[in-house]
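Q: Here's a chain of 128 amino acids. Please give me its 3D structure as tokens.
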Amino acid sequence: MPIKQQDESVAIAEIDAQLGTLPDDQRQALEHLRQTIKTAAPEAVEAISYALPAFRYRGRPLVSYGAARNHCAFYVMSPVVMDANRDAMAPYDTSKGTIRFAPDKPLPDELVTRLVRARLVETDATAR
């Protein structure tokens, strides 16, 4: 396991550096999102996936997040989870596996927690 912990510490440093380059409003919104994900999935490990801050669970991609010029994004990585929660995401701009939001209007913690927990269940089910 020490290698995994070392890999996570490298990822955390890279994520911190990446978030540090963002404008304050985006950085704060994504730091809050990051903390909400950590709370909802305490067994998940931080990682970099496709050059984005991400979380992995049981060695598999769980969720990721990032920023673009005019918005922040939460990548749920599951069309099934997105479809099951479509009504809760109605106020946001969504696509197949992504929710986009303005930094000054972050996603509610309850929604993030619901989506992360659904991804945990989905990952557990496919791991069997």
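Q: Can you summarize the key feature?
A: Residues 2-127 form a domain with the Aspartate Aminotransferase, domain 1 fold (CATH 3.90.1150.200).
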